Amino acid sequence: MLTRQHRRFVTATILLLLATSTVPVSAAGEARRGEPLYQRYCTGCHGIDGRGGGKNFMPHVGALTRKDYIEHLGDDYLTFVISEGGEAAGKSSYMPAWKSVLSEQDVADVVAYVRSLSLQ
Q1: At what angle do helices 31-41 and 104-117 cross, to 10 degrees?
Q2: Contact at 8 Å (CB) between 60 and 44?
Q3: Staple 109 to which of 14, 29, 73, 102, CB 3.0 to 4.6 Å?
Q4: Within 13 Å, how many C-alpha atoms sit on residue 108's CB side?
Q5: Model pLDDT for residues 4-40, shown as the tens digit of each residue
């Protein structure tokens, strides 16, 4: 059985590999298709415009629009976080895994929309 320290090491290694991978995990997404999915599933915590402060669940969630934040995260890492949930990525366990709700294409579309938020 893995100790907590070993699990963290394995998780960190997987995240590092995902973040530095040049092979896309899923199909290219389209922001226009991702917007309604983001509005339905993500605004409660991340806010309507991605700046955090959603009023439904976790108002202290940070902004997805921060300069030099999203740009440094690979699509495969964002896909992993959305699909597997925050806890799997070493983030908040309040972020659910959406893989049973959203298809791979849906997740790719949400990633594309999240990326578009930092451009607005």
Answers
A1: 90
A2: no
A3: 29
A4: 10
A5: 665 666 565 565 555 555 444 445 899 999 999 999 9
Neighbours of 87 (CB within 10 A): 14
- CB half-sphere exposure, 30, CA atoms < 13 A: 2
Domain ranges of the chain: 4-117
Residues 6+ apart with CB under 8 A from 116: 31
* C-alpha to C-alpha distance for 38 and 49, rounded to whole angstroms: 10
Question: Tens of pLDDT along 83-110?
Answer: 999 999 988 888 999 999 999 999 999 9
Fold classification of 4-117 (topology level): Cytochrome Bc1 Complex; Chain D, domain 2 (1.10.760)
Kindly report the number of other CB atoms within 10 A of residue 108's CB atom: 24
DSSP character for 52?
S
**Tokens coding 115:** 């990326």
Asked if 89 and 80 touch (Cβ cutoff 8 Å), the reply is yes
Cβ neighbours of residue 35 closer than 8 Å, sequence gap 6 or more: 113
DSSP code at position 76: H
